[in-house]
UniProtKB/TrEMBL annotation:
Baseplate structural protein Gp10 C-terminal domain segment(s): 244-355
Organism of derivation: Aquimarina algiphila
Protein name as catalogued: Baseplate structural protein Gp10 C-terminal domain-containing protein
Coiled-coil intervals: none
Annotated Polar residues bias: 297-309, 335-345
Region (Disordered): 290-348
Amino acid sequence: MEINKKNRTELKEYFKINDKPTQEEFADFIEAGLNQVEDGIAKVQGNPISIQAEGERVGTQEVLDLYESFADDNPQWSINLNPRVNSDEPTSNQPGINIKDATGQSRLFIKSGEGNVGVGTLEPTSKLAIEGKNIPSLLSVTDTTNNRTTIFEVSKKEGVTIKGALLVEGDITIKNLKADNISSSVDLDKEEASHEKIPTQMAVKNYVDTRMPKGVIVMWSGNIVNIPTGWALCNGVQGTPDLSGRFIVGFDKENPEYQVGKIGGKDEITLNASQMPAHNHTGNTSEIGDHVHNISHPASGNDSGNGLKTITMDGETHGTLNTKTKSAGKHKHSFTTNKTGGNQPHENRPPYFVLAYIMKL
């Protein structure tokens, strides 16, 4: 920075004893000092030093430049008011105070009115907004020990790092949680049970699915409108078998009637004659068929060899007796049993209690 001013030593030379300073020398003396009206700096009795910014209110107003050396062309740091977000756009200025570095980048900005603080940004949308320009670490908190361990850090690559315990006295919402004690193993039986390990949702699902695979059918005692998620009533839809009003019979590979998917059986059954047990019937014969038998008794004759017998009465032989009856009198009897039974079907089920069959989808 070029300074066209005389230093103190040069000015003192103008005012030696018996010397008469010229008008130009008096001008150099006056210009070497600060004027509270023209130079924008004032000190009113009882008030702190006041500095007036350079520039219009509608644009950036420069307040203070800090140099390591006046030999430098640009200041190391500058303080200004109402900085522009876009240096080429006059209407993009933000009301507030700003500290910028030698490159012109804003490093700290405090917005007027809201009081929002921006680090690396002129547009803080919260009480503290930090914007990094390819900087690995955006925010860090260091402990007070000699080791100066970083206990809290926010970085572009790692996100938020906390070394130590985190106490949250309220609700916490985490979109994608990753932790060393979260297990993604799908075989939970192989891991020791621990209160410090958390299985992932997929690990739990795979574990449950292998222990309770799709297609498993169980009995549900609750209301069918409250069937658990992932299960369906076995009513013939959603790929379930229709078990409405049915018993279940175990599979038998040797019996074609007991193959998977076969149905059979009846609620009631009517027996036919071949299915009835052996039994007797009671009944009465009809009274039709009255008749008599005749026996002949001739007084003489000899039918030797034909079954005739000699009859002797009081020592006198009177003749023979024919013991064969005549063929007259042949007949039949009709027979009617007493009628029993109502020809009705009978109950074909064991005692039952109704539950709903549900299937794992």
